[in-house]
Amino acid sequence: MTDMRALDIRSPRDGHPVGHLPTASEHDIAGAVLTAREVQPKWAATPAAERGAALRQAAGVLRAHADEVATVLEQETGRPVASAREGVLAGVSTLEQYAELGPVHRGRSLLGSWDAADFMVPEPRGVVVALTPWNDPVAVACGLIGAALVTGNAVVHKPSERCPHTGLLMGQLVAESFPDGVLQTLIGNGQVGARLAADQHVDVVAHVGGTATGRSILAATAKTGAKALLENGGNDALVIDADVDPKWAAAQAALGAFTNAGQLCTSVERIFVHEAVADEFLQALEAEARNWVAQPLVDVEHRKLVHAHVAEAVADGAEVLIGGEVPDGPGAFYPATVLTRCTPDMRVMRQETFGPVAPVCVVESFEEGLAEAVVDEHGLAATVLTGSMAHAQQAWRALPVGTVKVNAVFGGAPGGAAQPRRMSGTGFGYGPELLDEMTTVKVVHLGQAQPRRQAEADWRRTASASRAVSSST
Q1: Biased composition, Low complexity: where in the chain (predicted)?
Q2: Which long-range contacts (CB under 8 A, 24 or more apart) does 406-411 make?
């Protein structure tokens, strides 16, 4: 049964209570899914342009309340309010993007016989469950919710239990622009998410979050037949070639490892640097780390996990150049940390740490660094810093990940829609292709009916020919 205890949220900055919310009951969960099932056909029958207009209106409402949502997000997760507001506005832009793309999402015609029409038409899948994370909750939720709603699905959204106030506020604001029941937000812990994922009346389970949860969702949807759309994090590598400026490379590494306190799905998690530039790079990276003011992690429990990765690496022979200690005082702060003398078998190199930690392994050649980067069970993203076009070409072809970035740890054109691989998930999570994930395709063959009189005449001719053949034999 679902755990009915309230979610108590405390500030990761100083530990003060932010608030508490009751979790959804079994009745709430079943009722939300059935309501979504009931209202979805009418929403699907709404003209696509009207669905797009509703999403555009929702984007405007969210934009008008961006400061309010950002303040709540900062209180719950510790993300600086300016950065939190950027995340909210990124969500607004995503809603606006899907408001434009949804109405022009199309099928295609097929070449068949001259007297028939054949075509493939996209249809909404039905009820979508969106399970969204705490590290960038508004932007991620807007992507999944926006693409699902604009294509005619109904959505039941459960935000992370680490930022329920943010998720509830965002959900209420966006839902104002849609018919009742088309978008519902449920609050709860992992048990609520598991119950939603296992519901027989759900057609899609879209999840952004941890790998263990993603595996459980795959098991659940294998029984129900629902589609699983998953982004389960990564263990993104950074490979640094011998021909780049080590100070520039250090700035890139720091940006990738320390932004949002390392709590991004595409954060740099492991670094392989060529020995020719290793000493200068490490010196510069240590200096860069000093410029990053310590930020809180989402909560004390997560800080324990991050510090455990660091402590275990040190016990196995890694050296701390800077950071690596739990600071005194309230909150869940953790400093920018640089580790050297790391080896690929250390847990800090094998698993997603999801904190402001830059573990560095020195390699003898670019080929060795690339080979080590390839060895990983995840497949989200990776970055290569090199002045060699040949090495860049070699890298993007060899790395088994959804996104390869050359000479920039972050960046990319709007509308990119990479597919995570292996334990990082399945399906497109962004861009126009997400509309394809939220729809299914029906093939239609439209032939001509034969008029009754013509059919009778054809029958008589066939019968007469048959009698003639019989009499001749």
Answers
A1: 462-473
A2: 408/252, 408/383, 409/238, 409/252, 409/253, 409/255, 409/256, 409/268, 409/383, 410/255, 410/256, 410/259, 410/266
